[in-house]
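On clarity, I found the account of how folds are encoded harder to follow than it need be. An entry of this sort, consisting of the sequence and the corresponding backbone structure tokens, reads as follows:
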Amino acid sequence: MPQFLSEKIEVTIDKAKRAPVSFIWNKKEYKINEVIAAWHDWGFSEGAPKARTWRLRHHRNYYRVQTTEDEVFEI
């Protein structure tokens, strides 16, 4: 069963491909074997004022990845 964890991770990005290649979580490094899916979020935070402008938007990149140990994560 999927589990949501809101914890910081350190991600290493391949700048040429603009994709993650590994990440560190709980002092363990996970090497990424495959990026299964990628999507972007340009929304507003829950507490954003009603008069929303482009300056208040956030930009987040999300990835569903499979590690070399066959684990699947959304980062």
Summary: DSSP finds no helices and five strands in the chain.
